[in-house]
Design brief:
alpha/beta, 23% helix, single chain, globular, 7-stranded mixed β-sheet, Metallo-beta-lactamase, Chain A
């Protein structure tokens, strides 16, 4: 399967798109998270998809890890674009806690009422998307992928991921305080994305530098503060926007 890196920034980045990525297998596109300016990031990264550049109409499933804005602020635009331009509902996979609040606390204020030229229409999430709930730590099939979740140590319920296709497995810490048990959970992945950023609910760089070499060799850092961009960190790989890799 292919990994396509759309953004590597943290919540306060001015030089990067918010951390998000795509996993593609046999033409099926799984998108993970949806920050601000999502289509602009897609245009800049210019991932080739068939005979065109990957765009939101090509996404088969979008997985939302948690409700912080740098991971979900772009979803309003994507849902509206899919409804009015491609005329296809978006398939959303997410955890129970996100599913409970996604519409009422995030999207309803902006998408809950639409004007059709004559009347104001009340809308629901079902008008824009089909929602599938992923139970914690229970594998679920998503097209050619198997997805497994694990709750992280963060401000709000947030999901780490393991995404598998055939013999390939991608692990993602998502936003988390440093957690050795999470590292162990991700260890069997062929490629690991791990966050590093500032604050008690994120992972400091020095904690990752102390990990065994065998896990650091397959680890790529994301959710980067601007101060780390274009830097080299001996013993660790820093992901970058537009980065593509076979897993």
């Amino acid at each position: 399967m292919e990994f396509l890196c759309g953004g590597v920034g943290d919540a306060f980045s001015t030089k990067s798109w918010g951390t998000h990525f795509f996993v593609r297998e046999k033409g099926f596109v799984l998108a993970v998270d949806c920050p601000d300016s999502y289509r602009r990031a897609l245009e800049k990264n210019a991932f080739v998809h068939g005979d065109h550049i990957l765009d939101v109409g090509d996404i088969d499933v979008m997985l939302i890890t948690h409700l912080h804005g740098d991971h979900v602020n772009g979803l309003e635009m994507v849902l509206a674009y899919r409804k009015f331009v491609t005329e296809k509902k978006l398939e959303i996979f997410t955890t129970p806690e996100v599913a409970e609040l996604l519409w009422t606390k995030r999207l309803e204020v902006s998408l809950g009422t639409l004007y059709d030229g004559e009347l104001y229409q009340k809308m629901s999430l079902d008008d824009f998307a089909n929602l599938t709930i992923i139970d914690w730590e229970t594998p679920i099939q998503c097209g050619p992928f198997e997805i497994q979740t694990r709750q992280t140590i963060h401000h709000i319920p947030t999901s780490a991921l393991k995404i598998s296709a055939g013999n390939s497995k991608l692990g993602y810490s998502c936003d988390s305080a440093f957690d050795p048990s999470l590292i162990d959970w991700l260890r069997d992945s062929d490629m690991i994305l791990h966050e590093t950023s500032f604050g008690a609910a994120h992972t400091p760089l020095f904690s990752l530098l102390e990990l065994d070499e065998d896990i650091r060799e397959k680890m790529w850092l994301v959710h980067l503060p601007d101060s780390l961009l274009n830097e080299e960190v001996e013993g660790l790989n820093l992901a970058f926007e537009g980065f593509r890799r076979d897993v």
